[in-house]
Amino acid sequence: MPVFALLVIAMVAELAVIIAVGQALGALVTVLLLVAVSVLGVSLLRRQGVRTVMAFSEALRNQRDPSQELTDGVLIGVAAALVVFPGFLSDVVALFLLFPPTRAIVRKRLLRRAAERRRVPDTHDVVDGEVVSGTPIIVDAEVIEPRRD
């Protein structure tokens, strides 16, 4: 499905949820809830971002593979974009990515998928050889002239 279609579906779903909450609780309470969830998301974002940067620095200092920290950084970046996007559904997904235990689940799946993509089966035969130019080659009494391009 194209990315544009997914964005349109997400926007329609967000709007539907905001309207439903607005009808159930009132417009003012809905706006206050949206602001409160965004403020909570930004504070969690700040805290988790600092922790991830510190963990990344420590991994580099200890010469350890920083792939977990890099993946966490990307997931926190996605969460940041979702927190900025107004709506309840995007905020729930952002909070899901900001909460360390649930982020670890997503990180494991992403790293496992990346490892599977790296493992490409070697199905090609490699023949060592060299390119000879300028002189004809004789193979089984047949003269093979080099191509002139």
Q: What report would you give on this structure?
A:
By secondary structure, this protein is mostly helical. The protein has a domain at 35-115. 71% of the residues lie in helices and 4% in strands. The chain is built from five helices and two strands. The chain has helices at residues 3-25, 27-61, 67-84, 88-98, 100-118, and strands spanning 137-139, 142-144. It has a two-stranded antiparallel ribbon with strand order 1-2. Strand 1 (137-139) and strand 2 form a beta hairpin. Helix 2 runs antiparallel to helix 3, helix 3 packs antiparallel against helix 4 and helix 3 crosses helix 5. It starts with a helix and ends in a 5-residue tail after the last strand.
Instruction: Going across the biggest sheet, name each strand in turn.
Output: 1-2
Helix and strand sequence: HHHHHEE
Low-confidence stretches: none
Number of β-strand runs = 2
Spatial shape = elongated
Taking the sheet with the most strands, its summary is: 2 strands, antiparallel
- The oligomeric state of the chains shown is single chain
Mean pLDDT: 84
Secondary-structure-based class equals mainly alpha
Kindly state the percentage of residues in helix: over 70%
Q: Roughly how many Å apart are the termini?
A: 46 Å
Quote the beta fraction. Answer: under 5%
Number of helices: 5
Cα gyration radius (Å): 27 Å
